[in-house]
Sequence to fold (281 residues):
Amino acid sequence: MSIWPPRTLLWLVILAPFCSALPAQEPAKTASIEIDVMDLSGARVPNAQVLILPLSCQLGKKFITGNEGKLSLEVPPGSYEVRVRVPPFRPAKEQFDVHPGTHQTIVVTLLFGNTTELVVIRTQIPVSFPEEAQAVSYDGRYVIVSKGRPLAPHHTLWLEDRILKTRRKVFSYDRRAVVLWNPYGKSFAVTNYIGNNSSHCIILSTDENTAPIQVLDLLFSDPDVSEQQCLKSLLRNQRVLVEAVGWTLLGEFKAKVSVYTSMGELGFDWEFAMPAPLEKP
Fold:
């Protein structure tokens, strides 16, 4: 049996308390990912809009690829879906899982081609009230005018039928409203700007027997569960704009949701397409 020298035993006694006090190394709480966006030829695609669900919705922001078509992030472990959009490519998405303490590269390959959001027949021009006098439907039959009043709500939109010579109230607002006619039918969208960086959107019909539709109701009825959860996260932020973008030839209505930070800076904006309500194109 070997005997420890006295000097060695002395050092063991001195160092023992310090060794036992060393903290255990904590496991990694995040992982690193790199989004690599390219086309079919393998060329990198810079300045692509990247939405990482659910992270983008929790943070209220989207991301942009750099000059080399790449985006690097540290993210918590979990399941994610990355969605990439940049004209003239088709939107693309990939799903992936992230494990703590790991690094992985997610390659997103974009295809060229027309998308439904680019297929339109007529230019759709929004009309802003009360700055402008009227918004005329594409067939010229209907016209929307705004009238002011001293009490809140301070403005009212009226729909006039030039053939039947009728007029009815369709919407009331306080600050500003933007009307966008459907060029393929007899419906129109009204975006009501109720405050700084805050708005709601509604779709109405020239048929007074047709009930109006809230655009948020359409968005929440989207079968895409990821986008539903994303919207719910975004709407917890009070500084949210929900705006009408327009109608496509293939029968879709497009809306945009924009989220602003407490400093008034745009943190996130994304367009959603859905089947056009109230009528078919």
Remarks:
- The radius of gyration is 28 Å.
- Residues 108 and 252 are 26 Å apart (CA to CA).
- Residues 115-122 have pLDDT under 50 and may be disordered.
